[in-house]
């Protein structure tokens, strides 16, 4: 009987786990792709994924985590909306011996052992790359505006920092304005409208740096409505590489995007499997992506929208 019972357990496979996923919300096209991708990856692996949408609120994420802990899940994926305020709930997960994998954004905690690993890109590097592209395009002379992501998110903090690291090296690059558009299309449009108003219709502006594609898409609309040509009168660079930004780039409305791979479920689940097997796991599993320019935009749009 005992042998039979253990065989039955084995035959369900090592990955037949129950995993909680606390997602931020659905503020951007990128995030929607990430959600779909992680759900699909869980299904492929036979993982019972408990999905919780926090509607952009940290308090909802903390509640979701406590409910996952109470249910005794085998692991937790957390996409943390902001960077701080996680110590207590992560300690509760650790005390319950539930590994937590951060996906796509990071946290600031006093004790890094409170989470297993982070599967995310290097936002500082993305910001640096964006600024290097802009400096090259404008020969180091540019008065730009910045559309920041969600206030307090690691993605916004670090994309700002990386960009400014490089801008500092060019004495004739200057930030005119910077404000959060909350990573949404409507936020990007609204903030860009106010920037254009405050900047005499935008004539003295040279470029827009948006922390994600959705805000850039909103800004493109605002620029058009103000009677200027996005991608020409104002250079635009953003991050994510969602299908719609390739369409805009192919149409000449924007100039560059930095890719962020949304398929983070595979490495996140692998990390939980490794931890369960007692194998070491790196503290940061880096997702990487190149910068795309208009030359390949039409092809990229076709390829990505067909998927
Ligand atoms: O760039 C943005 C999203 O955390 C990396 O969040 C992610 C960012 C992504 O809403 O579109």
Automatic annotation (TrEMBL):
<dbReference type="InterPro" id="IPR028082">
    <property type="entry name" value="Peripla_BP_I"/>
</dbReference>
<keyword id="KW-0732">Signal</keyword>
<dbReference type="Pfam" id="PF13407">
    <property type="entry name" value="Peripla_BP_4"/>
</dbReference>
<dbReference type="InterPro" id="IPR025997">
    <property type="entry name" value="SBP_2_dom"/>
</dbReference>
<dbReference type="GO" id="GO:0030246">
    <property type="term" value="F:carbohydrate binding"/>
</dbReference>
<dbReference type="GO" id="GO:0030313">
    <property type="term" value="C:cell envelope"/>
</dbReference>
<feature type="domain" description="Periplasmic binding protein">
    <location>
        <begin position="19"/>
        <end position="274"/>
    </location>
</feature>
<protein>
    <submittedName>
        <fullName>Sugar ABC transporter substrate-binding protein</fullName>
    </submittedName>
</protein>
<comment type="similarity">
    <text>Belongs to the bacterial solute-binding protein 2 family.</text>
</comment>
<feature type="signal peptide">
    <location>
        <begin position="1"/>
        <end position="16"/>
    </location>
</feature>
